[in-house]
Each structure stands twice: as C-alpha cells, then as structure tokens.
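Recall the central idea of this unit: under ordinary conditions, the amino acid sequence of a chain determines the structure it adopts. In this exercise we apply that idea directly, starting from the sequence alone.
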Amino acid sequence: MPPSTVPRLLIARLPFYYGWLVLAAVCCAGFARQGPANAVLSIFVEPMTHEFGWSRAGLSGVISLGGVLGALSAPLLGPVLDRRGARLVLCLAVLGSGIACMALSLTSSLLMFYVVFCFARMIWAGPFDLGIYGALNNWFVARRAFANATASFAQSLGLVALPLIAQLAITLHGWRAGWLAIGVTVLIIGFAPVWLLLVRQPEDLGLVPDRIATSQAPPRAHDASDDEPSFTRAQALRTPAFWWLALYTALVYPTQAGLSLHQAANLIERGIAPDTAATIVSTFSAMSALTSLACGFLPRGLPIRYPLAVFGALFAAAALVMTTIATPRDGYIGACLFGAGIGGVLTLVPVAWAEYFGRRSYGAIRSLALFVQVLAQAAGPPLSGALRDLTGDYTASLHCFAALSLAAIVVAFVARPPQRAAVVA
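Accordingly, the structure predicted from this sequence is:
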C-alpha cells in the first residue's frame, strides 16, 4: 500500500531513516526518466533520418518544442509539488514517458514523431526534474549533496544502459523495436517503487530531514536544518543570486543538450563506426555517473559556485576536443570530459537552488529556474543541427558551445548565496 496509509508507528520502528527508501524510489524514477533523453534519441538519429529522409535540423526541432512545452508547464507544477509532493507527479511522469516511448515505434511521419516525442520530452523536462529533486531536497538537508549525487548517478546509469538497449534492439530488429524496448524498460523500472514508497516530506511521518524523529535521536544543540534559508518565490526573485544562477543555467544547458543529441552523429561523420559510437556515448554516460557520485562527497562548507565553474570549464574543453576527433581514442577523451561536466552540472545545479533558497518553496522557485533551463536546453539541439546543415559538419556549433561554457565559468564565480537578511520566516 502507498506509504501515506502506513501507520506512523510502523515507520518509526524501521531500523533506518525512511528517507533512504525515498532515495531508492527516486533513483528508479531517475533511471526511467532517460527514455526520451538526448543520448537515447541520438542512437535513433541515423536510422530514422535515413529511412524518412528528414534533415538533422528538422529532427532536432523536436527537442526544442518539447522543451518549450516543459518550460511552460514547470511554473504551474511547482506549487503543486510543494502542496502534494512528488509521488503523484512522478507516477504520472513514468507512465506517460513509458507509453510515449512505445508509441514512437509506430512513427510514420515527422508530424507523428513530433506529437509523441514532444509529449515525452515535456515530461522529461518538467515533471521528472521537479519530482526527483523536489523529493530529495525535502527529505535531506545535511546529506543533500549526497542524496542528489546518488539520484544523478542513477540517472546516468540510465544514460549508460538505455542507449545500449536501444542499439541492441535496433541491430537485431530495427529502430521500431528499439523504441519498444525503451518504453518497456521505463515502465518496469520506474513505476512500482515510486507508487509504493514516496512520501511528500519527513514531517508527514513524524520525522525530520536526514534522520529519525527527534524523540528517537539523541538531543542535539544544533541541527543542519536550522541553518537552512527559507525564501518564498517572491523573495527569491528579489535576490541577485536567483538571476546569476538562472544565467548560469542559460549558458550551460544549450551545450548539455546540443552535444548530447548530436554526439553519435558527429562521431559517425568523423569516421567512427556506429557500434563504436554507441559505446562512446555510453562511456560519456558512465563518466557522468561517476562524477555525479563524486559530487556527493564534496565538503559541505565548499561554496557551490566553485565546482559549478569547474564543470563549465569541462564543458568548454569537451566541445573543443570534439572538433578534432579522428580516432575512437579521441572520441573517448571528449566523451569523458563531457560526461564529467554533465555529471557535475546535473547534480549540483538543483542542490544550488535548494542551498540558496531552502525547502519552504523549493518547487515554486525551482519551477521558474526550470523554465529557463528547459528553454536553454531547447535552444542547443536546433542550433547544432542548423549549423551542421549550413556548414556540412558540427565544428561551428562546437565552437559556439565552447564559448557559452567559458562565459558560464565567470558567471559561476559571481553567483554568491543570497543575504540572510532577505529571509522572512
């Protein structure tokens, strides 16, 4: 039965903090989230454009349109998340994503592909992101970075496994079987844990963030949650920190999305075999997973803007390396740099919003930031595809992404936390 119907006494008798079960459920949802991810779609770019004769820019536009829809829905979902919690949001997200991926196997035209994939991409960009990080940032404060890192690691594992599952199915039975395999995997992995285990916040079970109920834990003179800021959406919007973090988001996410979608096609055009290209894509995902996990062990006192600057530098280096790929070895180097950057950005950007503005209105605040994020993600793929169609290769787009990433380094350094004086209890 859902945890909302489980007596508090039963939860209290668990020998461990219930938040770890919440984290496990969120990890399953994070793995399942990657069904319509750019890295997965990149495996389908070559066979689908070859069969239907679509341009790369035309196919890339689906990422942008789906991102715009996700951006429009996010500010509406944020307050719902704060009131109702992540369980409803993530259950619907897993169901919608799995069914949409299976429906893509029936694609017969570009219009049909746009309708179905845009729906899946909207779910990926909005409900999944808000639900995953909203749940974790409610349940963890002192261990927030570790919890977010673990969830990002699970998402990266999805990026490792799902492209390989897709490529295997495509090799054996064609690209339609690839979409069926992705959809079934999403539903099997994601739905049951979310439905059975998620709870809105620890206080609903008589617990406190990071640990078992106060009455069961040794008295502490100081709790990590006592230090947490508590901004409303309106208060956050009046701080420079909100706009610096939003600008950082706008600079790094076009690179994240643009490189992810076109990396396999770029490798193939530079003479890398399709099977090797798929392995390189999975290597980038594996590196992303390892970096995400490593972020969980960053010192809590380290200002988060410093690692954000480092990961912007990794994005810039990856884009420049990808302009010179001539052998599989070059591809693996670029993939490792890019994967490390993505792992850090995907893990620490949600943490930064929670660390700067607190749990109180995380959904409402983060949903506005997510509006910026998904629009930025939407801009990357068509920019890359259009420049490729115009120039004949991906070099110009890679230089563009490198420049955006270098600008993000500067922005990260100046994105200081908001002043506590702005907080109203």
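Residues 15-204+227-420 form a domain with the Growth Hormone; Chain: A; fold (CATH 1.20.1250.20).
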